[in-house]
Amino acid sequence: MVNFFLCYGNYINFNFNNKNIKIMKNFGKLLKYIFLPKEKAFWIRVKKEFSSQKEKENFIYATIELLSNEIKVNEI
After folding, report:
1. Minimal CA–CA distance to 50: which of 40, 62, 42?
2. For 31-66, what is each residue's pLDDT tens digit?
3. How far apart are CA 71 and CA 76, in angstroms?
4. Which of 17, 36, 38, 61 is deepest in the core (most CB within 10 A)?
5. With 70 as the cut, is the pLDDT of residue 5 above it?
């Protein structure tokens, strides 16, 4: 089986039409934007479920505090 893939792997033809190429180019642009942003950026990971309303509110307030500490405004 391995010999089959090694010997006949060169004959596999991938059909990339214009639609697939455009999708791959857009995906590449998205990856470039995520990993090489033009501006300094950071990520926040957010949980979708909390065990109580109080825990959810504490998380929201902590996130707001983090954002207010990290985001700087350039005064003109």
Report:
1. 62
2. 888 887 777 777 788 889 999 999 999 999 999 999
3. 16
4. 61
5. no
Residues 6+ apart with CB under 8 A from 20: none
Exposure string for 41-67, b = 16+ CB within 10 A, e = fewer: eeeeeeeeeeeeeeeeeeeeeeeeeee
Contacts of 50 (CB under 8 A, 6+ apart): 56, 59
Rounded Cα–Cα distance for residues 11 and 4 (Å): 11
DSSP string, 16-28: --HHHHHHHHHHH
* 1: pLDDT strictly greater than 80: no
Question: Among candidates 45, 42, 35, 47, which has minimal Cα distance to 70?
Answer: 42
